[in-house]
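I am still getting used to backbone structure tokens and would like to learn alongside you. Label the sequence line and the structure token line clearly, so we can match residues to local backbone shapes. Would you write everything just below, so we can both look at the same thing?
***
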Amino acid sequence: MKHRFPVNFFGGIWTLLAAGCLILVPNEFARAQSTQEAIAQVTPRMVKIFGAGGIMRLQGYCSGFLVSPQGHIATVWSHVLDEGEVSVVLDSGRKLKAKVVGAEPRLDLAVLKIEGEDLPYFDLDLSADAAAPGSRILAFSNMFNVASGNEPVTVLHGVIAARTKLEGRRGVFDISFPAPVYIVDAITNNSGSLGGVLTTRDGRLLAMIGKELRNAQSNTWVNYALPISELKEPIQEIIAGKYTPVPTKLADTPETSPRHKPLDFGLVMIPDVVARTPAYVEEVAANSVAAQAGIKTDDLILFVNGELIQSCRHLVEVCDKLEDGTMVDIVLRRDGKLETVKLVVPDKAE
């Protein structure tokens, strides 16, 4: 059940000293004594993010959380960030522009930056230890865009169902994460929730809510979150300007040829010069599978079998999963309009 609470809190925690005086400690959490106290501690550290979207039922908003007093924000690496500069709304309702300062797509992680100082934030060094199955949690996010201004974000109660490996598989999960994730017994992963957080019941940061993820075989949705223990180091290194993204599997093992490449379909993509080079078609080979399907030069490949193609590199990874002889649905953007084409994966053994 979804619960939302009004927040009237000064963004810090009062601590009683032995001398009997009170001081404000803005960046550290005392363990909350109630759910309402935990919500009051967490919500000032949450932000709402607005960016790209509006096609194929892709929403143009998501969630994020402050990880430095200078305005660094952690969120999920997604289509919402495709515009480069996005709008961020703080818990107070203040609206600011943010830019992506670093990302690790392999971990579904992006770090944004807004101009600010002395902002309430999550100290990653004080995040919670790993949670065991059965642990009760709170989930915070801008679910369904319920908070476009100074409204409080949505809060859900839930339970950790499992901590397990989540791997992308053909026709099952369209995602891969190289470490165990939390499976949550609560409907946390809805539109706008990606980039939100899971916390313990006393308000300590535990995990970042992932993208909407569907099991294509059972037609059920998976609710999961990425542990902060896996994200902490890259977030801190991105902030410090020292992070080098981990190579993808294909780059790690160049001696292993992928099962299929775009060129096998007759597609020559534009040069892959940055981490998220859009999947534009530079040339289509005559009489190729792609040419017969109607794909043309300058088409932008948006989806393959329903999976959002975020870059040329991502297209290579998706092609590697395709099986010989299967039918593939491709959604293109051409002259400002969406086009759908179908083609059959060629049999490389022939």
Remarks:
- The chain has five helices and 23 strands.
- Helices lie at 35-42, 228-240, 249-252, 289-293, 312-321.
